Amino acid sequence: MKCRTVTCAPTNIAVIEVTTRLVRLVRESIECGSYGLGDIVLFGNGERMKIDKHDDLLDVFLNFRINILAKCFAPLSGWKHSVESMISLLEDPEEMYEKCLKERGEKDDEDEEDDDEGEGEEEEGILRDEKLEINRGREGKIHPQYFKDVKEKKIWRNIIDQTLKKNKKKQQESVSSQENDQLKDDKGENEDELAQKKNNKMVASGKNDGLLTFQEFVKKRFDSTGEKLKFCIINLYTHLPTSFISIEVAKNMIKALGLLESIATLLHSSTVSFKRLKENICEFEDVGKAVDQFSKLHRNRQECLQILRCLHQTLPVPTIFLYDGIKNFCLCNASLIFCTASSSAKLHMAGMKPFELLVIDEAAQLKECESAIPLQLAGLRHAILVGDELQLPAMVKSKISTNAEFGRSLFERLVSLGHRKLLLNLQYRMHPSISLFPNQEFYNNRISDAPNVKERSYKRCFLQGDMYGSYSFINVAYGKEEQSNSHSTRNMVEVVAVSEIVAKLFKESVAKKQKVSVGVISPYNAQVFAIQEKLGKTYSTSTHSDFSVSVRSVDGFQGGEEDVIIISTVRSNLNGKVGFLSNRQRANVALTRARHCLWILGNGPTLANSGTIWTKLVSNAKARGCFYNAEDDKNLAQAIATSLVEHGYFHLLQNMDSLLFREARWKVCFSDDFWKSLAKIRRTEINKEVLRLLEKLSSGWRSPNNEKNPNAITGTCSELFQQYKVNGLLDLVWTTDILKENSNCTQVLKVWDILPWSETPKLARRLETLLGNYTVNDMNRCKVKCTEGNLEVPMRWPGNMNDTGKSLLLGDDPGELLSRSIASLRIWDESD
Fold this sequence. Notes:
Layout: E1 5-9, H1 12-29, E2 40-42, H2 46-49, H3 62-73, H4 79-91, H5 93-109, H6 112-130, H7 152-160, H8 168-181, H9 191-204, H10 214-239, H11 247-269, H12 289-314, H13 323-333, E3 336-340, E4 357-360, H14 368-375, E5 382-385, H15 399-403, H16 410-416, E6 426-427, H17 432-442, E7 448-449, H18 451-454, E8 471-475, E9 481-483, E10 489-491, H19 492-512, E11 516-522, H20 525-535, E12 547-553, H21 554-557, E13 562-568, H22 584-591, E14 594-602, H23 604-608, H24 613-623, E15 627-629, H25 634-646, H26 656-660, E16 668-670, H27 672-680, H28 684-699, E17 722-726, E18 730-741, E19 744-756, H29 760-771, H30 776-783, E20 786-788, E21 791-793, E22 796-798, H31 814-819
Parallel strand pairs: 1-3, 1-4, 2-3, 4-5, 6-7, 8-14, 8-15, 11-12, 11-13, 13-14, 16-19
Antiparallel strand pairs: 9-10, 17-18, 18-19, 19-22, 20-21
């Protein structure tokens, strides 16, 4: 990548999207770990970019890189010191151990007060040398978690002092035991024994409590130095540009990592003394595993020393310690820089290497005046504008500015002037069933589906049922649009429907251990806020989590994409008014964000009567067999019904029999008194319990221990009068009724009211009068019970030709009921 290129976009979302794609491609192509990422820099406001939710971009994010390189460049704890310390340790560990013992002995002879004072001065000096001057007001917050105060001399002392101080008496006993157990060599005491004896004497005298043995010292020193060295190696070949570090050096660094890991493993498992690394393998008379381990340790040590010495000579890191210096170093040596168009102004600085190429993504959304910012970068020879004038333009709120074409983009101007443009006619994002309608409607079928989206594996099934296929329109007929406090439009029923679908997706994702990213789009900010509030913090928004949910407006989603997109169109009225939803550019963006599944939620009749692009969409969905009703999903129907109750939309519940009881065994009829009483209940939990009880009753469930008010009703009609407790406070009163329809008589449930226990006698007396007007045949039909297992199911009989096609009680005039009381004097033969 010899051509220095700036890639910018109008929004942070678009910048993040294009950077993510490039980094993914680079990671797939590079051979040496993360070598090469140092040529790529992403900079901007980390908080607005939500960079903490994009772990894959941290390796190219400028602020993060500065923090990492500052640690690697540090003179007393960075790369230079770490590699020199490891070389010294591998070359002559005994000399280092003796040096530490000597320093410790001198330290113990000093006065404690002088020691403390010296330590404070020493640490102060180290901190002063290691301090990184960071201007936090220029590039956003620096992540302090990637900095650790390195106090080198204190680390040396801690390595030796790691074992806990023991009681002097116990230490002396331990020393005595160790001396008795020591083995002697034919040539006398070896160097290990001399060192150990020296240590023991110092311990016994109380001068050096808890000193490490030689081998303990070597292992701990290797571990601590190795961790710092590995940190520097990994981050240097990741964050340094390829112009500063060659591929051969990177390969040597990766090889050194493997050798360090191998030495650490052998060092902790081998029984061979580490000091013997200086000796020749032939001096060993032992055979077997120990010799094999030593042989491998010896070879790895020699090879690692050779590579580290080479790296020490060929990789001199820059002597830069200040924030601005490291920042300029990264920007000047990067080949690809990503930022927003406005942030590109920060590249206008003295000493900046010139750029050759400018690429503007989502160029049709960037105002012409904003395009001038990156176009003025020094040295530019070429500019490439990538955009789509058929999608959203720049946002301009002022009508005066809009009329003055302030929001016009340079891309749009060039198109209007007839400048030659190239059509990218392959789309790699959408499943063909998703791209079909936008391609027909917006691009005259000039866009082709790439081979990857045509593959069978690209079709994903996240939920069971045809409704949740690759493309579907879900008709939410019971929605109601309303104005929020911000004067934006929202539809709370659609909010609940979206929440229910997302919950189902999450459940299936966990059950199948399937990674899913979900995007929820709505043209209205009030709807976006309502959905975000409904979902809360239940689901992750990080793209790296197994299940993530992103809720944004259409404008905020331009440039983005997800596995599943759910569109909430909001509008629900009788006259087909859809407001700025009719904007074709906005519709184009919303309909082209999904990879595998696109589910559009809306009121079918409203959109069909709008005379806009949405009219064609609804017609297209019906023609393709992709049009579904929300109540076709039982769980979705229950959620919608609950939402209607919660928000007091009782006038919409009049057709609740088709919403809740479409697959119920019993048909349920309601009196006006029931709806009036339900509207007076302000407690959501009671309303939900009423719906659950009605659903259970319609399925055939009956309470075995139903308690009735003894003062409510008596006589022959008492068998029909039913009252069920709701939340221990209210009674749901219902009876079995007869519906005469299509020359048949069918048992149905008639729900009369929901009221306090004390008011049930009054309703019972009223029902006694009405029920008393039944014919004998009809009364007996109401009393008949038919069971299937534990469920009670409705009975059906052939009716008379003169039947009116309605319930006997529902809506009948009392006088008419009385005139029919003598119509039949015999009980219907159940065998007929």
